[in-house]
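no rush on this but wanted to send it before i forget. theres a chain ive been looking at and ive put its sequence and its fold in token form underneath. please have a look and point out which stretches look like helix strand or loop to you. thanks a lot i owe you, the record is right below:
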Amino acid sequence: MVLRDSAGLVVDSLNYGLLVDPWASEGYHGISGAGEAGCRVAVPPAGRGGGAQNAQPVASPNRSSGRFPDGADTDSNCNDFQLQTVTNLAAAATVGSNNIKIANAVDFAPGQIIAIDTGANQEMVMVATAGTQGAATVGTATAAGATVIPVASPAGFTPGQTITIDSGANLETAVVVASTGGGRGGQAPGPSVTVAAALARAHLPGAQISGSGLTIMGGLTRAHASDAQVTGHVPTPGSANQYTRRGR
């Protein structure tokens, strides 16, 4: 979309998706990155399954692009727009819980309204505190003094992140040094989490390891399976969007 004055000069422009008209990619193209074709508003791509030649399309999450901050216009589509935040539950969540574990904690913030799950099982909640990402369970019995914890699946933790291990009297915290997804075909060790200091306690298979996640106001009214979609609030047409950028 291009707005021109009576002399035909471009006074404002907006471009969604791939570049159509150089004038419509508003802003300095050099900051858009290699292969990005100028400052355009990102459009979520359609997913493809498994990488196979005849793979069926994977349903992409319903997402929107919106200005951030709402109504801002710096004359650069590279800076003014962001995609709606989308992640997944890193662990199942039970009815009444006021904390959820998420695969990615970027761009969630206190006071934000988020949607958990989809369809008839979706519920809207408000974020009270936004913490860190990741969750897994201990894969095999781990002794006190260990610094490498085998886990049942990749955990999604980042180096330097503080995590909690186990619960009740066996609860302890640790700082992540590395988190690996394991090798393929049994030719390499399975997924594991390496921590900075020796564990103070032994932990049995199935004990939860997690980041602090998102604490919500009140408790969940429904149970949600691991991998259920979590999104930032979808704006109502004509109303302000509720996107956030953490730390910005």
User: Anything to note?
Assistant: The two ends are 28 Å apart (CA to CA). Residues 46-60 have pLDDT under 50 and may be disordered.
